[in-house]
Amino acid sequence: MPNNTAAKRIEVNGIVQGVGFRPFVYNLANQYDLKGEVANTAAGVSIHIEGPPEGIQAFETDLAAKCPPLAHVVEISGRTASVEPYAEFRIVKSRGQAQMATLISPDVSICDDCLSELFDPHDRRYLYPFINCTNCGPRYTIIDDIPYDRPGTSMRHFKMCAACQAEYDDPTNRRFHAQPNACAKCGPHVSFYDNHRKSITTADPIKTAADHIRRGRVVAVKGLGGYHLVVDAVNSEAVMRLRSRKLREEKPFAIMSADLKSIRKYARVGTQEEKLLTSIQRPIVLLQKRKPNPISPAVAPGNKYWGVMLPYTPLHYLLLKHGFSALVMTSANLSEEPIAIDNDDAFERLADIADYFLIHNRDIYLRSDDSIVKHTAGQKRTIRRSRGFVPIPVFLNHTVPPILACGAELKNTICLTKGDKAFLSQHIGDLENMITLDFFKLTVAHLQRILEIQPEIIACDMHPDYLSTRFAREQVETRIIEVQHHHAHIVSCMAEHQLEGAVIGLAFDGTGFGPDGTIWGGEVLVAEAKQFERVAHLATVPMPGSSAAIKEPWRMAISYLHATFGDNFRDLDLPLVKQIDQQKIKIIAEMIVKGVNCPQTSSLGRLFDAVAAIAGVRKRVNFEGQAAMELEMLADGRSDSIYDIQWTSQEPIKILPQTIIRGIVQDIQNGLSITEISVKFHQTLIVLFTEICATIRRNRDLNRVVLSGGCFQNALLLSGLVGQLEAHNFEVYAHRQVPANDGGIALGQALVAASIADAS
After folding, report:
1. Which residues contact 140 (CB under 8 A, 6 or more apart)?
2. Interval 79-102 mean pLDDT
């Protein structure tokens, strides 16, 4: 070898297997005329490289800067090695337990190269709806077992033709070891059926589906992580028909358009929103509505935002090329059930909703709903973390034991930990029925298998009636650690930001079981991983009818009016009091006085409900958080005006909401608009909790504030509090990677359990 030949051993860890990393290294080495080898190892990828020092330096620079789109590099380390004269650079067999230790990549959108081929009449995959390569396509949803290779995926049923096999075996080809590789000759195919499961013969099933959608029909379309129910988003009659059949009265539907130009006709797309829309994850992005716009108002009634996504599968592109402005793409299920993924199950469960079915014969092994994000307070905020992001782990700043955290009841996800990684599952849903519980159990078993994690500890919520808690308690051979709901919220955000030590935690949501037997949700905690102290909270009020008060916010309005005015509230000149049946008001008032079926709550979510009902926004809701959401949507503009605020002086501080309620009633009687009342109420909360944090800072010498809980999906509250707290020189941390709502709580449960176990 020439005298100027150097050698280096480079180790790369992260998501670097099954994502085209070895062929990337192979081609990069050949680009710089370097020799050596690359292999998968238990820790990631190991590279031995030899050649001129300047070539090795250029190789290392590109290795970090130009890695494949699906790779997620955590660390690259290098050391000088001995020269072992190689004749060439080669990809060698995996070493040790490499394949068993790999981090699995998520499902991502079709890449530009495949998209170009899809619409190229000269390409052999022209208009093939399952085109993919190493850089794109299905991953997580088709894995049945490890190691991640074709026999362990749903592609095992499709034997590659000679042309596909040649691509698969060629390290210079971008389909090298792409497990879902296929073409029309050897791969999956689509077909079209009516809702009686009768096959409809057609040369172009996708065009036939598009024709029926254009006529106002509801078509169930099998996608990447499950079925969607699809209608033309411009056709109000079709949208309302879908709502009626799906039993989804007012909750917004997601929509999909072919390109950014189409989206800009009905929504405002800023620079950050464009980045989110076009990212390889292709999430649903919440975008402000343009007025006027061509989309049916029935798609997202009472909302300032559309939930919009770009196509992420070739099938979506082929469907949208038939000239739609936008298509409703909503999860194929009845309300509160998981989405359908299996063809037989889809025909059985969706026959009364869909008129037709566009299906395919590639199995989905694990359902994965569309992810939802929004750009708020200067950052991407995740509302639902699922397709495109799972199972990329949250990286921790220390190692923890193998733990299964079972999450909460609503918006359930689970979390499994391994070393310094926390794996949050895809969105499972509300654990309120057996079909969702079965999905929960399937997800637990599936993730434990493909991640090779056998939990030593199981963490769960303290609420005894949650199905997730009951599941945990049934695992009698494993140590169980119960974690308070709001403690878990705060620690989930701390874990995401790798924070250690005590923080001021604002945990705001609708419902969480408190150790004192009341329902918490307007909490200010001093928290660290292993313990917390409740230092301030909203004063409790009765919750008449318990869970009925969540669906009927007027009940919370009566509770807060009674707490403020006593029995005299019935004499108030207030539209709400006149609109509700007087006998109903009498019954609720008696329940409050006698304490019958009236659990005490400190929930900020319930205060939002009460204010919404008192202000005349909504007396009943059709989905969780609807009243609070619509109150937020009505807020327009800014105001420095606030309602009087009052709290007790000793810790735990009790925040007394009566002054706020009294001010709102007075404003209504004086004719102030709902818009002005909403702005004033939000501003009051922002000032109130900033002052509470300042008080705690003086008492406890703490300057870091962590925000978590479903109320922080409210953009006005989140951005206002972040801005106000930072203006008062606090360090403020809010969720980015994982949801602020209960979809992120399993992460906090896992880290609390790890800390408690470490201390015991």
Report:
1. 104, 105, 106, 107, 366, 368, 390, 391, 426
2. 77
The CA-CA-CA angle for residues 324, 330, 333, to 5°, reads 140
Fold agreement (6-100, 190-360): no
Residues with Cβ within 8 Å of residue 543, at least 6 apart in sequence: 519, 549, 555, 556, 559, 598, 599, 600, 601, 606
Q: In the predicted model, is pLDDT for residue 99 greater than 80?
A: no
Find out if CATH 3.90.870.40 is the number for domain 190-360: yes
| Span 160-164, average pLDDT | 98
Contact 525, 748 (CB under 8 A): no
Sheet holding 479-483, edge to edge: 394-400, 415-424, 403-405, 457-461, 479-483
Task: Write out the two tokens for 562.
Answer: 């009674």
Q: What is the mean pLDDT of residues 603-607?
A: 98
Query: What is the number of other CB atoms lying within 10 angstroms of the CB of residue 102?
Result: 25
Confidence band of 102 (pLDDT split at 50, 70, 90): low
Strands 89-91 and 227-232, bridge-based pairing = unpaired
Domains of the chain, by residue range, sit at: 6-100, 190-360
Cα(43)–Cα(305) distance, integer angstroms: 44
Predicted TM-score (pTM) of this structure = 0.94
Q: Do 401 and 440 touch, CB atoms closer than 8 A?
A: no
Please determine, looking at this structure, whether the domain spanning 6-100 carries the CATH number 3.30.70.100.
yes
User: Which tokens hold the place of 365?
Assistant: 């092994």
Q: According to the model, what pLDDT value does residue 579 have?
A: 93
Q: How confident is the model at residue 146 (pLDDT cuts 50, 70, 90)?
A: confident
Distance, in Å, from the CA atom of 495 to the CA atom of 180, rounded to the nearest integer, reads 34
Question: Length of the chain in residues, anyone?
Answer: 760
